[in-house]
Design a protein that fits this description.
Layout: H1 14-21, E1 34-39, H2 61-71, H3 88-99, E2 102-107, E3 119-124, E4 131-136, H4 142-147, E5 154-156, E6 160-164, H5 171-187, E7 192-195, E8 207-210, E9 214-216, H6 224-232, E10 241-244, H7 249-260, E11 271-277, E12 282-288, E13 294-305, E14 317-329
Parallel strand pairs: 1-2, 6-7
Antiparallel strand pairs: 1-3, 2-7, 3-4, 4-5, 6-8, 8-9, 9-10, 11-12, 12-13, 13-14
Length: about 325
């Protein structure tokens, strides 16, 4: 919340202040190669996964949680335990970290119909593997079967639009996110989901377009549908793009500078072929382009600003900024 007079005001929230400062969106997408979408009909707590609960209707559920660490292939160490057998949200979060998956709660825009059956979604954003799978979610424990590969779900050809509206995490996300979710849901009701915290509160409204993992920031309701229609055309919207979570930030920065230099904004253009880390926080990235390979050299710098990057944050803090050094076609 804004700390000015003790109450939140949109005009002094972290997103409004970032707008006024002109904070750069470039290469601010958090890495997220895979996603677990968990439909939730209950209010979201600040820490989203604590909304997941053990169901007493599942025989042996508690025992399954306590023994999960020994039975999960490839798991490093035992699953976290709590109380009498492990908090389900902790275990799901631990498994997702082990598997390189980003979990988020999702819900449809508007009034939640708690009688409607829930779904889970598993999304792969890795280049060449982009895929969305959906399946029914009868209980929260079923997520363990999904993560263990026991329920493959059904492949969908429809993209997914996530709009962060997690007000208990940051008020700006709800205030700015809900109008964007409304605009997208009106045009694409089956593709659009509100979601829990995805990072970058100061860039609200934040939208993620899956399966390519495109993060967009400072999205106004008037341009929300534009992101969707452009994605259907196979291109990104550069001025709102934070980057693709499928790539590390230096690659996101290289892609941005290549697009700014006039290279195609096609979604599948500018894929990294090599990433070389140099000295002094510098990288050389070779991108594949429709016009031939592009070599881009960038560096990262931390700028200290007297500002809060979230409504609940403190100041001063540091913001990472990328600088272009060279961009050459080879």
């Amino acid at each position: 919340m804004d700390r000015g007079d003790g109450g939140y005001r949109p005009e002094t929230g972290c997103a409004a202040q970032a707008d006024l400062r002109g904070d750069s969106l470039i290469a601010t997408a958090p890495p997220a190669e895979r996603w677990l979408l968990i439909e939730s009909h209950t209010p979201w707590p600040r820490q989203a996964l604590t909304a997941l609960h053990h169901s007493s209707s599942v025989p042996g559920g508690e025992e399954a949680l306590t023994t999960l660490g020994r039975s999960t292939p490839g798991a490093g160490g035992g699953a976290p335990r709590g109380g009498g057998g492990g908090e389900l949200g902790d275990v799901v979060g631990w498994l997702c970290r082990e598997l390189g998956i980003r979990p988020v709660l999702v819900r449809r825009y508007g009034r939640v119909d708690r009688a409607r059956s829930r779904q889970w979604g598993l999304v792969d954003c890795r280049p060449g593997r982009e895929e969305v799978r959906w399946g029914p979610l009868p209980t929260d424990e079923h997520l363990l079967d999904v993560l263990a590969g026991k329920d493959p779900g059904t492949v969908s050809n429809e993209p997914v639009y996530l709009v962060c509206t997690h007000g208990r995490h940051d008020a700006c996300c709800a205030v700015r996110g809900r109008p964007v979710a409304a605009a997208l849901a009106f045009a694409y009701p089956e593709r659009t989901w509100e979601c829990s915290h995805i990072g970058g509160d100061r860039f609200a409204a934040n939208v993620v377009v899956l399966p390519h993992g495109l993060f967009y920031g400072h999205v106004p309701p008037t341009r929300a549908v534009e992101l969707a229609t452009q994605y259907d055309e196979g291109v990104v919207v550069p001025d709102l793009l934070r980057g693709s979570g499928a790539f590390i930030p230096p690659v996101q920065a290289a892609q941005h500078f290549a697009r700014a230099a006039g290279h195609s904004p096609a979604v599948d253009n500018l894929l990294p072929r090599s990433v070389q880390e140099l000295s002094n926080h510098r990288w050389r990235i070779l991108l594949a382009s429709t016009t031939g390979p592009i070599s881009v050299e960038v560096s990262a710098h931390l700028d200290t600003v007297n500002a809060r990057l979230t409504c609940a944050g403190s100041s001063p803090t540091q913001i990472r900024r990328f600088e272009l050094h060279t961009l050459t076609t080879t």
